[in-house]
Design a protein that fits this description.
Blueprint (H helix, E strand, L loop, with lengths): L9 E6 L10 H8 L4 E4 L9 H10 L4 E5 L2 H6 L6 H11 L7 E7 L8 H13 L3 E4 L8 H9 L3 E6 L13 E2 L2 E6 L12 H14 L3 E6 L5 H16 L5
Parallel strand pairs: 1-9, 2-3, 3-4, 4-5, 5-6, 6-8, 8-9
Antiparallel strand pairs: 7-8
Helix pairs in contact: 7-8
Length: 246
């Protein structure tokens, strides 16, 4: 049992992108009115933005903290091999104006990527290039204690998916690596088109607190319900644990 007086948690909550039906006026509205203090950039998985666009985001986003999803040519096509490195360097250069606001570069792995010696070598190589790498696996072979130990040893942040893959969080719970928990909320019965029940949000909040991180990032990737669900989990952290947004 975690005592309220023992909780020292910096909480960051946001959504995966901001161009949705619930947002009437883009990133400026998101930063001003959503009630969130972080955002996960999703479009960068599909295309490299112009650096002028990144500068505009910096100007519009206020004090938001960022997680930037890495382009699929790096994670899915070249699968972090040697030929992915020049692309990664190009990608990183594009985001240089926003670098001080970026807490993570999100590497979402393809579902076919299993935890192998070869993949471990590739992740080590990228971890030497950047200390902000957060990896979201999509194959069950990654959700074991020995994998968490590997991430811990190599200072790679582990992204815990709340998804239909596990009908919620995996049995490991919210994974804490180097004082950080990073959870992506995709939905439970179905991917993306899903509204969370209060008891499900309470379960996630409890498991995050039980993991004992210094910082926790929770990003909602469930489309039309992400604004309401994100605001609700902020209320739950406040009501049950006395934890406010950082």
């Amino acid at each position: 049992m975690v005592l309220l007086a023992q909780i020292r948690l910096k909480l960051y909550v946001g959504s995966s992108g901001w161009v949705y039906s619930w947002n009437p006026d883009g990133l400026e509205w998101y930063a001003r009115e959503s009630g969130f203090n972080a955002v996960e950039l999703n479009m960068s998985f599909y295309s490299f933005p112009r650096q002028s666009t990144v500068v505009k985001w910096l100007e519009e986003s206020g004090g938001l903290r960022w997680a930037v999803k890495v382009h699929r040519s790096i994670t899915h096509i070249r699968r972090l091999n040697e030929r992915a490195v020049p692309l990664w360097e190009k990608f990183r250069k594009v985001f240089a104006p926003l670098e001080e606001r970026i807490d993570f570069y999100l590497f979402q792995l393809p579902p076919s990527a299993t935890f192998t010696g070869e993949m471990k070598d590739r992740l080590r190589a990228f971890a030497r290039l950047c200390d902000k790498i957060a990896v979201e696996p999509r194959h069950a072979s990654w959700f074991r204690e020995e994998v968490v130990a590997f991430f811990q040893e190599n200072s790679i942040y582990f992204v815990t998916p709340d998804s239909p893959l596990f009908e919620g969080l995996p049995k490991l719970g919210a994974v804490n690596v180097n004082g950080v928990v990073y959870v992506r909320m995709h939905g439970r019965l179905v991917w993306y088109n899903y509204g969370y029940l209060d008891e499900e949000l309470e379960e996630v909040a409890r498991k995050v607190v039980e993991a004992g991180p210094e910082r926790a990032y929770i990003f909602f990737n469930n489309n039309h319900d992400m604004l309401g669900d994100g605001r609700r989990i902020i209320e739950i952290f406040s009501e049950k644990y006395g934890v406010k947004l950082a």
